Amino acid sequence: MSTRQRILFTPLKIGTITVKNRIVFAAHLTNYAEDFLPSERHVHYYRERARGGTGLIITEEHSTHPTDHPYEKLIHAFHRRVIPYYQRITRAVHAEGTPILAQINHNGGQGSGMFTRLPAWAPSALADPLFREVAKAVEHEDILEIIQGYARVAAYTREGGFDGVELQCSHSSIVRQFLSRNTNHRDDEYGGSLDNRARLLREIIAAIRNEVGRDYVISVRLCGDELIRHGITLDETVAVARLLEADGLIDLINTSIGTATQTLYMIEASMRIRPDYALFIPSAIRKAVRLPVIGVGRIKDPIQAERILSEGHADLVGIVRGQIADPEFARKARENRTDDIRLCLSCNQECVGRMGLNRWLGCIETPATGREQQLGVGSLTPVAEPKRVLVIGGGPAGLKAAAVAARRGHRVTLLEKEARLGGQVVWAVRVASRAEFGDIVRNLLHEIEQLGVEVQTGVTATLDSVLAAKPDAVIVATGSVPNRFAIPGGDGPEVADVVDILSGAVTPGKRVLIIDRLGFHEATSVAEFLAEQGCEVEVVTPTLYVGQDLGVTLDLENWYRQARRLGIRCTPNHSVLSIDHGVVMALHNYSGQMVHFPKADTVVLAVHRQADDALYHALKADNARATNLLQQVRQVDEDLYQSLKGRVPTLYRIGDCVAPRRAHAAIIEGEQAGRAV
């Protein structure tokens, strides 16, 4: 073990359990529940991270009361029927030698009656900014129900084999709403002073401890700063931590920042926010209490984690997205294989983003996430007879296919027509706020190098050259090309594609008009890139607002802050009809008015690309001809047929050359092709 990791892999006693290292797979939503119960998918998901060496697992939240149902796939822990499902999870995780806590919670006013047809419960009769539904201010008998609900569910978790519970008193919790002056306007013994606002939390803890006994871990996750007016401050959180320690009933303090419905973009921060951004919270709490403290917030690699521990900011580190991307994060770190870790991009596209779309949690880099039973670590079986596999295209799809095929034992050659690998990612990362997206390529390049994939760059594959190579299988991943004819006049000399700008192939003029039909990073990144160079930038889009898809990845708020700082003009609700020598004509979506935008020096297209599929279709046609010829041979000479048929390669098409989409589709199809070949 390197000296840089001397604390990270030191055991730590927490109440009645001992963790083997300081890495925590902290609580996060998965949407894996079925019929409001933990599913088999949960079992495999948590077991994979336990096998990967994490020190402690804390599950996603389990609801403690029927009035709490803010999203569809919430686990209803207030029924005894959860217990056997809990036992499946805990048996699987304990078999790997890892302790596991269950997070329990009531979301309070951060919910609605959409599912329950009941009023939301909250400290005061206020409407949450996201759900916009006035809550019922809980009465004393309701508060007693809440307390009893927490205690009841804690007992169920113990019967279900968990090592303890964590109270979610942070970003989405009725307990945090009681703690906060922003949401607690009560004038009884549960409102006003901090002691009063902390009363519910302390009564819940006492009730749980009375129910489960002293030999059961209780963790409390506190919000250090809500980042809203009259919200919880760090000083208040430190004071609450001191109160809880003095009560002597808890074993661990976890931390958080922000609220899940007002400042969510700061809880699960994207790559726009620097790593360690929330470290000031555990650092301050740890200085005030002797209880172990977990620090969270964009902790990406073991070196960063070790620094946090060695500098005394926390006793443990919560690494969630890092272990979603690579379930073997902890094991690789312990074995000093830091370069082998598949680093999280903090892109939020398939983890946080899928939650926002009410889909099950995945990962842009790791198709096995959420599919561990089918695609998890160890599921790749070596081939009995290695094939000569030719992969054409070195973007994410081709790199993933090459890596998976090589890992199975095939002899893989990858051809790329450009001088460098990476596809469109190479240019996307030129925008400073998107630089970490390059890790998707870095991770794959490291993998194919370790696996011995033969790489040839600057080579344009043709039908003749592919056939001359005599591969056993061909995977075509030739990507996509700009569609300069998507808009009449789009092929004019003053028009450029986003890649033209980012690659430097086109030098823009002073006034730039960006036409955005994608609603994602393509237009907003280029707008930021050009504005930082001094261009006057306007973005025109037919959608309700510029960057509409940035909301689910939690990039929207911070991009708009940057856009305002840079003076980027945003013009939504306009459908561009044509471009004529830098003059753009558009239709206002609602009034039907025709609008001519002032002449631009450069018009940039952020529009749908078109598949570069000519090579695939040429190979497919050749295979069809060869197959027909072989069938004719078979009719007259079976022996000759048997000797010739192996010369027709298996053919696959993946990624953008199937249909231009985002990177997650390329990675998934690369995985599928690499496994199928």
TrEMBL record:
Gene Ontology terms for molecular function: FMN binding; iron-sulfur cluster binding; metal ion binding; oxidoreductase activity
Question: Carries keyword Nucleotidyltransferase?
Answer: no
Report the residue ranges that make up the NADH:flavin oxidoreductase/NADH oxidase N-terminal domain in this protein. Answer: 8-339
Q: Which UniProt keywords apply?
A: Flavoprotein, FMN, Iron, Iron-sulfur, Metal-binding, Oxidoreductase
Q: InterPro entries, from UniProt?
A: Aldolase_TIM, CHP03977_oxidoreductase, FAD/NAD-bd_sf, FAD/NAD-binding_dom, NADH:flavin_oxidoreductase, OxRdtase_FMN_N
Give the cofactors, semicolon-separated: FMN; [4Fe-4S] cluster
Per the database record, which ranges form the FAD/NAD(P)-binding domain?
388-670
- Pfam families assigned: Oxidored_FMN (PF00724), Pyr_redox_2 (PF07992)
PANTHER family xref list: 2,4-DIENOYL-COA REDUCTASE (PTHR42917), 2,4-DIENOYL-COA REDUCTASE [(2E)-ENOYL-COA-PRODUCING] (PTHR42917:SF2)
Which family does this protein fall into? In the N-terminal section; belongs to the NADH:flavin oxidoreductase/NADH oxidase family.
The name this protein carries in UniProt is: NADH:flavin oxidoreductase/NADH oxidase
Organism this protein belongs to: Candidatus Contendobacter odensis Run_B_J11
